[in-house]
């Protein structure tokens, strides 16, 4: 049985394939779909954007599809950058410029008020129009300087008190156990297995 993960990121595909290793399910990515055209994400929440991607891909391909949307919410910024996390500093997407803008916006904010979270919404959509939503969050604090070489995006600024490290200082194995995306994926696995092997 094949399912489609609506991403070009082979790392995400490998991660999901490992989680499904006992279920005889092959995970495809958008790289496996000829002439794939990106879907415009017009939602105002992570869940809406994930659903837009998932349903579009399920309709076009006939596969059961998983699509996720995720980003950073900072309390002192009213939840920004939120759904605009990847393009916070404008086009083209640039992690360094996004981090610089975040640090600039938080310059006057005291350390104890620099709280926030990584949030992930993951939607499973079937060609018949069924939809299932799972979510994951990781709470943390935004540092004033980058720390760590792992990860991407805002990981070097996102400090997780439970670990005493930033997301970028965790190993990939540690991150894949605690991340917002990993949490949402773990909740999605039983739903996927039921859909594929009812």
TrEMBL record:
Source taxon at top rank: Bacteria
Catalytic residues of the enzyme: 69 (proton acceptor)
One GO term (biological process): purine nucleoside triphosphate catabolic process
Keyword set, alphabetical order: Hydrolase, Magnesium, Metal-binding, Nucleotide metabolism, Nucleotide-binding
Pfam families referenced in this protein's UniProt entry, alphabetically: Ham1p_like (PF01725)
Matching SUPFAM superfamilies: ITPase-like
Cellular component, GO, one term: cytosol
Cofactor binding note from Swiss-Prot or TrEMBL: Binds 1 Mg(2+) ion per subunit.
Cofactor (UniProt): Mg(2+)
Binding residues for substrate: 7-12, 70, 152-155, 175, 180-181
EC numbers on record: 3.6.1.66
Catalysed reactions, as listed in the record: XTP + H2O = XMP + diphosphate + H(+); ITP + H2O = IMP + diphosphate + H(+); dITP + H2O = dIMP + diphosphate + H(+)
Binding sites annotated in the UniProt record for Mg(2+): 40, 69
MF-aspect GO terms: dITP diphosphatase activity; ITP diphosphatase activity; metal ion binding; nucleotide binding; ribonucleoside triphosphate phosphatase activity; XTP diphosphatase activity
Function: Pyrophosphatase that catalyzes the hydrolysis of nucleoside triphosphates to their monophosphate derivatives, with a high preference for the non-canonical purine nucleotides XTP (xanthosine triphosphate), dITP (deoxyinosine triphosphate) and ITP. Seems to function as a house-cleaning enzyme that removes non-canonical purine nucleotides from the nucleotide pool, thus preventing their incorporation into DNA/RNA and avoiding chromosomal lesions.
Family: Belongs to the HAM1 NTPase family.
Subunit annotation: Homodimer.
UniProt-recorded name of the protein: dITP/XTP pyrophosphatase
Species the sequence originates in: Desulfitobacterium metallireducens DSM 15288
Lineage of the species this protein comes from: Bacteria, Bacillati, Bacillota, Clostridia, Eubacteriales
């Amino acid at each position: 049985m094949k399912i489609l993960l609506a991403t070009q990121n082979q790392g995400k595909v490998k991660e999901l394939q490992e989680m499904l290793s006992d279920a005889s399910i092959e995970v495809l990515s958008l790289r496996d779909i000829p002439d794939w055209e990106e879907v415009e994400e017009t939602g105002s929440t992570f869940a809406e954007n994930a659903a837009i991607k998932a349903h579009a891909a399920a309709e076009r391909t006939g596969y059961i599809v998983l699509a996720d949307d995720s980003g950073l919410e900072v309390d002192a910024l009213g939840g920004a950058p939120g759904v605009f996390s990847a393009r916070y500093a404008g086009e083209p997407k640039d992690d360094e410029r996004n981090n610089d803008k975040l640090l600039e916006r938080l310059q006057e904010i005291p350390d104890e008020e620099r709280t926030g979270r990584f949030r992930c919404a993951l939607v499973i959509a079937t060609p018949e129009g069924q939809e299932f939503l799972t979510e994951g969050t990781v709470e943390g604090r935004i540092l004033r300087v980058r720390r760590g070489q792992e990860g991407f995006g805002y990981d070097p600024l996102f400090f997780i008190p439970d670990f005493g490290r930033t997301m970028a200082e965790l190993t990939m194995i540690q991150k894949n156990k605690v991340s917002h995306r990993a949490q949402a994926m773990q909740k999605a696995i039983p739903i996927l297995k039921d859909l594929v092997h009812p």
